[in-house]
From TrEMBL, chain A:
<protein>
    <submittedName>
        <fullName>Glucosyl-3-phosphoglycerate synthase</fullName>
    </submittedName>
</protein>
<dbReference type="InterPro" id="IPR001173">
    <property type="entry name" value="Glyco_trans_2-like"/>
</dbReference>
<dbReference type="InterPro" id="IPR029044">
    <property type="entry name" value="Nucleotide-diphossugar_trans"/>
</dbReference>
<comment type="similarity">
    <text>Belongs to the glycosyltransferase 2 family.</text>
</comment>
<dbReference type="InterPro" id="IPR050256">
    <property type="entry name" value="Glycosyltransferase_2"/>
</dbReference>
<keyword id="KW-0808">Transferase</keyword>
<dbReference type="Pfam" id="PF00535">
    <property type="entry name" value="Glycos_transf_2"/>
</dbReference>
<feature type="domain" description="Glycosyltransferase 2-like">
    <location>
        <begin position="40"/>
        <end position="134"/>
    </location>
</feature>
<dbReference type="GO" id="GO:0016757">
    <property type="term" value="F:glycosyltransferase activity"/>
</dbReference>
UniProtKB/TrEMBL annotation, chain B:
<keyword id="KW-0479">Metal-binding</keyword>
<dbReference type="GO" id="GO:0016787">
    <property type="term" value="F:hydrolase activity"/>
</dbReference>
<keyword id="KW-0378">Hydrolase</keyword>
<dbReference type="InterPro" id="IPR002933">
    <property type="entry name" value="Peptidase_M20"/>
</dbReference>
<dbReference type="InterPro" id="IPR050072">
    <property type="entry name" value="Peptidase_M20A"/>
</dbReference>
<dbReference type="GO" id="GO:0046872">
    <property type="term" value="F:metal ion binding"/>
</dbReference>
<dbReference type="Pfam" id="PF01546">
    <property type="entry name" value="Peptidase_M20"/>
</dbReference>
<dbReference type="InterPro" id="IPR036264">
    <property type="entry name" value="Bact_exopeptidase_dim_dom"/>
</dbReference>
<protein>
    <submittedName>
        <fullName>Acetylornithine deacetylase/Succinyl-diaminopimelate desuccinylase</fullName>
    </submittedName>
</protein>
Length: 329, 399
């Protein structure tokens, strides 16, 4: 265990950044161009017309026109009922319905599905994923994540975390993720993948990844996609393949405890599947896929059943259309 | 900076040629939508209440540096500057927007961008004005415009309320460069053309009563009631029809809860008149009204005057006004001649010809759902560029 602590300490020292470390965008662009890298931004959406316009405007102006860091901005939508795609398209994003990408495959719906299909649809050597519900969106959400990949060849996967205290004193302050991270994921990682606890916010929806890594990992299409990624990339490449960047504050919608419960249920399914496949844990029976939550109406308690089944897509490299499009032998 | 597809605008030539180029200017500026809106968002989401504009102006100055302006600075009043050097550099044109807004730091400054509108606190007054200033270097670069005069771009601080345009006053008092003309940019309304400042006196009346319960004045011991008495007295002050004059009772606060006597109350007001002596006369009357109510009620009343403007400005027939009028006409917008009490007064004190213009249309000013319309913004900015070209070309000089 001492080795784990030392590894984590070394990794935190060497692979944890703050976005301000990468303020010099001209230098970043120069390094990107020297390596001939292309970078795609994927914004997965479902009914995000309130926030998507600002996100596209900022990234287009600052990271395409002013500093050409991004080679494409794509919005991949799960079938919004509002004007998400129209707004995004107005401001110059490439817009796609997830169901229109690889249409011959069985239809599935979920954020992970959009992220997975982005690997096929987008052309970048690096794909950076940014959620659409961020109220205080800023270019740092992209350059802070892609910069470690541009500057360090050995880094393959960069995760965001958010840590912006109002004041810093000499005393110790807790730092970590949200409720689901601290109550579920970090304890699970501590039990079975202790080195992954170094990732401060394993569930954050913002990360940048090299294509050659993305194409080799399966994608849960629901809640479990981020957790599953971390386990798979860690198992193949070790902790050294990760970096994390503090992007300061992230303002977004808060979720109810019930919603977080549903999320935790999906995450557990993905985790157990992964850990089971790797013989880290042994699951002896098939999972129940119904989560029951309860509500009270006067004196009577009612059960609410939520069917949550963490379906999964195979590694993209196994899809013949992908192999053909990207000339993978 | 990424290379941009530039178009060429004739900077030398007649005023008529500048007017003829307005449609092309508008078209070219509309192609820069994302740049302008990004500036609007990046600046607008940084809170900038009066006296706390430093962070927003740092962002402005960073923008100037990013587009390659070599001469950028902030001064001791937190004003932000960027200078676009002209080919001849003999004179200076000062284009400014006030950086401050009426919203506190605690207000959620998130802006929302839709295809036709941008909504959020301060977006019209005056983040759009500031975004116009921030975008001008990019716009002039895209249009391939090189001016003869130096163009000083400024985000001015401490403009509103008690700020009393302190930022601009400081700059003009200490600036060593001769200013040929001043253009004040407000987010809204496009079509506004202010060339005169009216006389103005701005202040606040504060009433305080003791916190102890006074049974002898059961039910009517309240700072709000006392302020109400002052308001009644103010309403009795006669106002002349000519010169046009008014007393604006613009702001009021008082009390803490439904069931508690108000121990403090405040009334914010502005006296306005086309005549400086009338402003003074109304000011004396208001002072008397406050003193009278204080003596009758025995309550503590304090009158604090913290901003004053002298009426003045340039004539309707001044070439700068004439050029701006014709440019608006070419934009198919009817000019609205509103007297101003803002930055324009600072220029008037120094006999510098100046105008205030608006960039777009918008509504719900100084409310959290304030918004600006995106589409009119392109013509509004084309108007601004055309006025700068007219000043630079010497078409606005008095003969």
């Amino acid at each position: 265990m001492e080795g784990t602590a030392m590894n984590i300490e070394k990794w935190l020292e060497e692979n944890t950044y703050h976005h301000s470390d990468f303020w010099d965008l001209k230098k970043l662009i120069q390094r990107k161009e020297e390596q001939g890298l292309t970078i795609s931004l994927c914004i997965p959406t479902l009914n995000e017309e309130e926030t998507i316009g600002k996100e596209v405007v900022l990234f287009k102006s600052e990271l395409v026109n002013r500093y050409p860091l991004l080679d494409e901005i794509a919005v991949i939508d799960s079938g919004s009922e509002d004007k998400t795609l129209e707004v995004a398209s107005t401001f110059g994003a490439d817009t796609y319905l997830a169901s229109d990408i690889l249409p011959d495959l069985e239809q599935k719906k979920g954020k992970g599905e959009n992220l997975w299909k982005a690997i096929y649809q987008l052309k970048g050597d690096i794909i950076v994923y940014v959620d659409a519900d961020i109220k205080n969106i800023h270019p740092r959400f992209v350059y802070g994540l892609v910069a470690p990949l541009i500057y360090r060849e050995e880094i393959k996967y960069v995760k965001a975390f958010y840590d912006r205290p109002l004041a810093v004193s000499d005393t110790v302050r807790p730092s970590g993720g949200g409720r689901v991270t601290e109550i579920l994921i970090r304890p699970l990682f501590s039990l079975f993948y202790p080195e992954l606890t170094a990732i401060i916010q394993p569930l954050s929806g913002e990360y940048a990844v090299r294509r050659d890594v993305l194409q080799e990992i399966p994608f849960p299409i629901g809640y479990g996609v981020e957790t599953s990624h971390l386990i798979d990339v860690y198992s193949k490449h070790g902790l050294g393949a990760f970096a994390q960047t503090d992007l300061d504050k992230r303002v977004h919608r808060n979720q109810s405890t019930q919603a977080l419960g549903r999320m935790a249920f999906g995450l557990l399914q993905s985790f157990l599947t992964r850990a089971g496949d790797q013989n880290v844990v042994e699951v002896k029976q098939a999972y129940n896929t119904i989560l029951r939550q309860f509500q009270a109406r006067k004196e009577k308690y009612e059960q609410l059943e939520h069917e949550i089944h963490e379906d999964e897509r195979p590694p993209m490299i196994d899809i013949p259309e992908y192999r053909k499009k990207f000339n993978v032998d | 900076m990424a290379p941009s597809k530039n178009m060429s605008i004739k900077t030398a030539g007649t005023f008529e040629q500048i007017q003829e180029q307005l449609p092309a200017l508008t078209e070219a500026i509309s192609e820069m939508r994302e740049t302008i809106l990004a500036n609007l968002v990046l600046l607008g989401e940084i809170p900038a209440p009066t006296f706390k504009e430093e962070r927003r102006n740092k962002m402005l100055v960073n923008r100037f540096s990013e587009v390659g302006l070599l001469n950028t600075a902030m001064d001791e009043k937190d004003n932000g500057f960027g200078v676009l050097e002209g080919s001849e550099g003999e004179g200076n044109i000062l284009v400014l927007a006030h950086t401050d807004t009426v919203f506190s730091e605690k207000t959620d400054h998130t802006l929302s961008v839709k295809p036709d509108v941008v909504t959020g606190p301060g977006v019209a007054d005056n983040t759009l004005g500031l975004a116009a200033i921030a975008s001008l270097p990019d716009i002039l670069n895209k249009l391939d415009i090189e001016l003869k005069n130096d163009l000083i771009l400024m985000g001015s601080t401490k403009s509103l309320g008690r700020g009393d345009i302190e930022g601009l006053r400081f700059f003009l008092a200490n600036n060593e460069h001769p200013i040929k003309a001043g253009i004040c940019v407000e987010g809204v309304q496009f079509g506004r053309l202010s060339h005169m400042s009216i006389g103005m006196l701005r202040g606040e009346i504060v009433c305080r009563i003791p916190a102890e319960y006074d049974w002898t004045s059961f039910g009517d011991s309240s700072a709000i009631l006392t302020i109400n008495e002052v308001i009644n007295k103010i309403n009795d002050i006669p106002l002349p029809k000519r010169p046009r004059s008014s007393i604006v009772l613009g702001k009021m606060e008082g009390g803490a809860d439904f069931n508690k006597r108000a121990t403090t109350a405040k009334l914010g007001f502005e006296i306005r008149s086309e005549s400086g002596s009338v402003v003074d006369e109304i000011g004396y009357r208001l002072e008397e009204a406050v003193a009278e109510v204080a003596s009758k009620t025995g309550d503590y009343l304090n009158l604090d005057i913290f901003a004053k403007r002298q009426p003045g400005g340039i004539e309707f027939s001044h070439p700068l006004v004439r050029c701006a009028r014709q440019i608006l006409k070419e934009c198919e917008v009817n000019p609205r001649y509103e007297p101003s009490t803002s930055e324009l007064s600072g220029f008037i004190d120094y006999d510098i010809p100046a105008l205030t213009v608006g960039v777009s249309s918008g509504k719900n000013l100084q409310m959290e759902d304030e918004f600006i319309n995106i589409d009119p913004m392109y013509k509004g900015l084309a108007q601004l560029v055309a006025i700068i070209l007219a000043v630079d070309g010497g078409h606005c000089n008095e003969h």
